[in-house]
């Protein structure tokens, strides 16, 4: 009977050691790092107005109040003016001196620069 107890004890110790080794291995394997990258502003696009020459215009987005915006010269890539807009579909109205230059729907994706060419 004493021999049976010793065999049982050894078996129990071996089983406990195996379970402990599996737990330790699973903990060590799960301790890896997760690499993520975040940046930018989600759901924001840029609106850029381009024309023959630099000038100022009035812009309304989705029927909101008009604001003054700068038109970028087609031939000059320096000092571009861009305006943040939510991504999605928008009604844009651009006017100069009371005359409507552009009235259209634009579609923009997050991170996109939407260029509107003015006549």
Account of the 3D structure:
This protein has one helix at 2-29; strands at 44-51, 55-61, 67-73, 83-86, 88-96, 99-108, 113-117. The chain starts with a helix and ends with a strand. Strands 1, 2, 3, 4, 5, 6 and 7 form a 7-stranded mixed sheet that branches. The protein contains 1 helix and 7 strands; from the N terminus they run αβββββββ. The model has no long low-confidence stretch (mean pLDDT 83). Helix content is 24%, strand content 42%.
Biggest β-sheet strands, sense, barrel? 7 strands, mixed
Oligomer: single chain
Radius of gyration: 33 Å
N-to-C order of helices and strands: HEEEEEEE
Task: Tell me the distance between the termini.
Answer: 103 Å
Mean pLDDT: 83
Percentage of residues assigned to helices:
10-25%
Strand content: 35-45%
In short:
This protein is an alpha/beta fold. It is 24% helix and 42% strand.
Can you give keywords for this protein?
rod-shaped; alpha/beta; 7-stranded mixed β-sheet; 119 residues
Q: Helices, strands, pairings?
A:
Layout: H1 2-29, E1 44-51, E2 55-61, E3 67-73, E4 83-86, E5 88-96, E6 99-108, E7 113-117
Parallel strand pairs: 1-3, 1-7
Antiparallel strand pairs: 1-4, 2-3, 2-5, 5-6
């Amino acid at each position: 009977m004493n021999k049976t107890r010793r065999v049982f004890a050894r078996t129990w110790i071996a089983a406990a050691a195996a379970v402990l080794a599996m737990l330790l291995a699973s903990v060590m394997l799960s301790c890896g790092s997760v690499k993520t990258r975040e940046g930018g502003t989600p759901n924001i696009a840029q609106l850029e107005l381009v024309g023959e020459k630099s000038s100022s215009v009035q812009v309304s987005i989705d029927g909101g109040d008009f604001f003054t915006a700068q038109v970028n010269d087609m031939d000059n890539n320096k000092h571009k003016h861009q305006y943040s807009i939510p991504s999605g579909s928008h009604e844009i109205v651009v006017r100069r001196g009371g005359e409507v230059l552009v009235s259209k729907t634009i579609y923009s994706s997050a991170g996109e620069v939407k260029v509107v060419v003015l006549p």
